[in-house]
């Protein structure tokens, strides 16, 4: 049977090297040192682990995850992607977030060859001369490669499965995936509280609009149509989310948006993420690449008014006026933004826009 092995840009290590290695022996390889801490806890039988939630929709918090939950999540992913002992996987994600940590646990549980590189946007240290079966990646990392690096783009097609997690997929990224990739690309649904993903949808070659839950997961909805999840990964307790979904069948659902991103403007309830999908398509046509989101801010007459928040202040007054008029023409009645606000965005550690903290900077 093949055994776990770690490869960093600096060196390769066996499990024994990492478990028995001293701090001084690993001090020149920060990735190996960080992974050694995780593996020592795991191999010494630690039962409870602390994880920090991302904070994309609220205040980040520490939660306790049982060892059995990690094992269940890891085993489920290994089975879904058919990752057999000894195959090569690569992790370009931060080891401080759930996605990066779970790659370590999956690899030691599945006896995989784990390649780890720094979690920069351009995957600068990606070794394109190695063969990998699986790579999780953030949306911004994949976008940067497909947009600016033809050599790495060509290399990605040699990877059997690429998994995008942590955020939504923009229209621009989806178009690049469809035009430039031939490998299989997936989009995951999950969160820290579910110990990474609990459902998948294929993005490419054939795009699916719905997620299919993994084995041993149960789902239902509450009175708001928000998803509720149960499985070993939730310690067999029902976990309530604020994600509004539409069921296709008991095993598949379509994500609609966050309940806490619903804007009540003049008594009309508007789902911000539904508007954003339409704006993405319009921005793609107009060749506008500025990050944005839709928010509701206090308004004396409407209660909340819809604003378009941009991560840039480079637009001219004329451009701003043109965007607002175009959106008014293309969006349903009452759904168009009343104004544009430009604010430097705040991002979470996993690369998602922290809407709550960003919108606070408007003073609203």
Features:
single chain, 364 residues, alpha/beta, Rossmann fold, GMP Synthetase, Chain A, domain 3, nine-stranded mixed β-sheet, four-stranded mixed β-sheet, 11 helices, globular
What are the low-pLDDT stretches, counting only 5+ consecutive residues below 50?
none
Number of domains: 2
For the residues shown, what is the average pLDDT? 91
> Strand tally, please?
20
Q: Can you tell me the CATH topology of the largest domain?
A: Rossmann fold
Shape: globular
Radius of gyration: 22 Å
Q: What is the terminal-to-terminal distance?
A: 59 Å
Helix percent band: 25-40%
Share of residues in strands: 25-35%
- If classified by CATH, what would the architecture of the largest domain be? 3-Layer(aba) Sandwich
Regarding CATH, which class of the largest domain?
A: Alpha Beta
CATH superfamily of the largest domain: ANL, N-terminal domain
Give me the side-by-side strand order of the main sheet.
7-8-9-10-11-15-14-13-12
Tell me the major beta sheet.
9 strands, mixed
């Amino acid at each position: 049977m093949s055994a776990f092995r770690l490869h960093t840009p600096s060196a390769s290590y066996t499990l024994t090297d990492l478990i028995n290695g001293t701090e001084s022996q690993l001090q020149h390889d920060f990735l190996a040192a960080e992974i050694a801490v995780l593996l020592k806890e795991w191999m010494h039988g630690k039962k409870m682990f602390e994880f920090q939630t991302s904070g994309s929709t609220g205040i980040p918090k520490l939660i306790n995850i049982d060892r059995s939950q990690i094992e269940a999540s890891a085993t489920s992913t290994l089975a879904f992607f058919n990752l057999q002992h000894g195959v090569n996987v690569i992790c370009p994600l931060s080891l401080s977030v759930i996605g990066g940590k779970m790659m370590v646990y999956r690899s030691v549980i599945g006896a995989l060859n784990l390649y780890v590189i720094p979690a920069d946007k351009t995957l600068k240290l990606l070794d394109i001369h190695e063969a990998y079966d699986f790579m999780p990646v953030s949306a911004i990392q994949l976008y940067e490669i497909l947009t600016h690096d033809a050599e790495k783009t060509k290399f990605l097609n040699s990877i059997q499965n690429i998994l995008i997690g942590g955020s939504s997929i923009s229209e621009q990224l989806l178009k690049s995936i469809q035009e430039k990739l031939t490998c299989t690309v997936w989009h995951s649904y999950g969160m820290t509280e579910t110990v990474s993903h609990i459902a998948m949808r294929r993005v490419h070659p054939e795009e699916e609009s719905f997620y299919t839950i993994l084995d041993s997961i149960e789902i239902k909805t509450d009175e708001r149509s928000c998803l509720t999840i149960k499985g070993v990964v939730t310690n067999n307790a029902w976990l309530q989310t604020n994600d509004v979904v539409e069921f296709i069948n008991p095993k598949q659902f379509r994500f609609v948006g966050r309940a806490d991103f619903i804007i009540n403007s003049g008594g009309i309830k508007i789902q911000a993420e539904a508007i954003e999908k339409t704006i993405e398509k319009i921005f793609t046509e107009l060749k506008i690449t500025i990050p944005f989101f839709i928010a509701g801010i206090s308004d004396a007459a409407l209660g909340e008014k819809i604003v378009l928040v941009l991560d840039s202040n480079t637009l001219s007054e004329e451009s701003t006026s043109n965007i607002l008029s175009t959106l008014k023409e293309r969006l349903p009645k009452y759904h168009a933004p009343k104004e544009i606000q430009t604010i430097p965005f705040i991002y979470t550690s996993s690369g998602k826009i922290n809407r709550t903290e960003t919108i606070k900077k408007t003073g609203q």
